[in-house]
C-alpha cells in the first residue's frame, strides 16, 4: 500500500509499504480521509521526535476492514473515526475522568502497537506509525481502543477533522476553559484548530470573540466562523485587545500556535482572574517566563489542554451532533483536498498557511 513516510528530518515521500493483519485487540481500517495537521509537519521538521522510518497521520476516518480476536466495539463495515489518544477505560486517568491522558498513549506514542511491535514494514524493516495510527496510508492497523464508530451518513472528511483539529479546538473552549455565555475570548492563531476554538467559543455563547493572526485573509475567515473582531498581531495588539474589553483584557485567552512568546501574550491579554488555555504544541526546549510576584497576585488560571480534554467515545458523537445541527460549520473548513500522491503539495500549502484545513482523500 501507499503511505507518507518520513525517512529523516525534513525528508518525506510517498512510498510503498507492507501491512500485516491485525492481532488480538486490533482492527484494520481502510482509510477514506486524513486531515493534514500541523502536528504531522512537526514530525517532519523534528519538533516532535520520532524513530525513522515513520508513517505520519493522526487525523483520519475510514471503514473497518478486519478485526482481531476479542474486538467487540466495532465490526467489519463500520465507519469509524480514529483517535490519536487511545481510551483503555481501565487506567488511573480513564477512571478519573481524564481519558485524554490515557496511559495506553505512552505505548502508541512510541510508534508501535500496544504490544510494542509494529504491523508496518518496508523491505523487511519495521516502520513506526504516528500515535499507533499512521493514517496517511491507504490502510492502517491500530488498537480497537483507538477507533470510534460513527453513522454512515457522516462525510468521511468531516469525520477525519473531528479526529483531531475540531475536537482539540472546540474541546479547548467547552471542556478545558469552560467558556461561559456573555464572556470575552481571544484566540491567537487562526489555523484549523484556532478556527475550531472560535467555533467552540461561539457554541458556548461568548459575546466577544477576538481572532488574532498575522494574515488578514485568515482573520476574515475567522469572522465567518464566529469571531466578532479580527486583530493583526502587531505592536498595538495588547492595547487593541484591552480597548475591546473595557481595559481589563479578555475573560479567556487561547494560544493555538505553540510558541512561548505567543503563550505569554495570551496570558498577558487575559484579565486578572481570567483563564488562559494553551493548546499549541511547542518545541521541547522552548520556555515561558512569568513574574513570580504577579502570577499569584493576578489570580489568573493557566492551563494546558490535551486533545480538547476530550473523551472520544462521548465527544466525537457530540461534535458530530453539533455539526448536524449547524452549530459547527465543518464543511467550509476544508479548503482543499488532495490524493496521497499530492501529499508534498499539501504540506507546502500547510506551511504557507494557504488552507484552513487540507484533507487527503483515498480512492
Describe this structure in words.
With 363 residues, the protein is α/β, with parallel strands linked by helices. The chain has two domains: 2-163 and 329-361, Medium-chain alcohol dehydrogenases, catalytic domain (Quinone Oxidoreductase, Chain A, domain 1, Alpha-Beta Complex); 169-306, NAD(P)-binding Rossmann-like Domain (Rossmann fold). Helices cover 28% and strands 28% of the residues. It has helices spanning 38-44, 92-95, 105-108, 156-162, 165-176, 192-204, 216-224, 237-243, 260-268, 294-298, 312-324, 343-352; strands at 2-8, 11-16, 18-19, 26-36, 54-55, 60-67, 79-82, 120-122, 125-126, 128-129, 139-143, 147-150, 184-188, 208-213, 229-232, 250-255, 270-278, 301-304, 334-338, 357-361. Strands 4, 6, 7, 11, 12, 19 and 20 form a seven-stranded mixed β-sheet that branches. A six-stranded parallel β-sheet has the order 15-14-13-16-17-18, sandwiched between helices. The two termini are 12 Å apart.
Topology:
Layout: E1 2-8, E2 11-16, E3 18-19, E4 26-36, H1 38-44, E5 54-55, E6 60-67, E7 79-82, H2 92-95, H3 105-108, E8 120-122, E9 125-126, E10 128-129, E11 139-143, E12 147-150, H4 156-162, H5 165-176, E13 184-188, H6 192-204, E14 208-213, H7 216-224, E15 229-232, H8 237-243, E16 250-255, H9 260-268, E17 270-278, H10 294-298, E18 301-304, H11 312-324, E19 334-338, H12 343-352, E20 357-361
Parallel strand pairs: 5-10, 13-14, 13-16, 14-15, 16-17, 17-18, 19-20
Antiparallel strand pairs: 1-2, 1-5, 3-8, 4-6, 4-11, 4-20, 6-7, 7-12, 8-9
Amino acid at each position: 500500500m501507499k503511505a507518507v513516510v518520513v525517512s529523516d528530518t525534513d525528508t518525506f515521500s510517498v512510498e510503498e509499504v507492507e501491512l500485516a493483519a491485525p492481532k488480538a485487540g486490533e482492527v484494520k481500517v481502510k482509510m477514506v480521509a486524513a486531515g493534514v495537521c500541523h502536528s504531522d509537519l512537526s514530525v517532519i521538521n523534528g519538533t516532535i521526535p520520532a524513530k525513522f522510518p515513520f508513517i505520519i497521520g493522526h487525523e483520519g476516518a475510514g471503514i473497518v476492514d478486519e478485526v482481531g480476536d476479542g474486538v467487540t466495539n466495532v465490526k467489519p463495515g463500520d465507519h469509524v473515526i480514529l483517535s490519536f489518544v487511545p481510551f483503555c477505560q481501565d487506567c488511573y486517568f480513564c477512571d478519573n475522568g481524564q481519558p485524554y491522558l490515557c496511559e495506553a498513549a505512552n505505548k502508541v506514542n512510541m510508534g508501535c502497537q500496544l504490544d510494542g511491535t509494529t504491523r508496518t514494514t518496508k523491505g523487511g524493516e519495521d516502520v513506526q506509525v504516528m500515535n499507533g495510527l499512521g493514517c496517511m496510508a491507504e490502510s492502517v492497523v491500530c488498537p480497537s481502543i483507538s477507533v470510534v464508530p460513527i453513522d454512515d451518513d457522516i462525510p468521511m472528511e468531516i469525520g477525519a477533522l473531528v479526529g483531531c483539529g475540531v475536537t482539540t479546538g472546540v474541546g479547548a473552549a467547552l471542556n478545558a476553559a469552560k467558556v461561559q455565555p456573555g464572556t470575552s475570548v481571544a484566540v491567537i492563531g487562526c489555523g484549523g484548530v484556532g478556527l475550531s476554538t472560535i467555533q467552540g467559543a461561539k457554541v458556548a455563547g461568548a459575546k466577544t470573540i477576538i481572532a488574532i493572526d498575522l494574515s488578514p485573509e485568515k482573520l476574515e475567515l475567522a469572522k465567518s466562523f464566529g469571531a466578532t473582531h479580527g486583530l493583526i498581531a502587531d505592536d498595538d495588539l495588547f492595547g487593541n485587545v484591552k480597548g475591546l474589553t473595557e481595559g481589563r483584557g479578555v475573560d479567556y485567552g487561547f494560544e493555538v500556535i505553540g510558541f512561548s512568546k505567543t503563550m505569554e501574550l495570551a496570558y498577558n491579554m487575559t484579565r486578572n482572574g481570567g483563564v488562559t488555555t494553551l493548546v499549541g504544541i511547542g518545541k521541547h526546549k522552548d520556555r515561558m517566563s512569568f513574574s513570580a510576584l504577579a502570577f499569584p497576585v493576578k489570580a489568573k488560571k493557566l492551563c494546558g489542554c490535551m486533545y480538547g480534554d476530550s473523551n472520544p467515545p462521548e465527544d466525537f458523537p457530540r461534535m458530530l451532533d453539533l455539526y448536524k445541527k449547524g452549530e459547527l460549520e465543518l464543511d467550509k473548513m476544508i479548503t482543499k483536498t488532495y490524493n496521497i500522491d499530492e501529499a508534498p503539495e499539501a504540506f507546502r500549502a500547510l506551511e504557507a498557511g494557504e488552507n484552513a484545513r487540507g484533507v487527503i482523500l483515498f480512492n
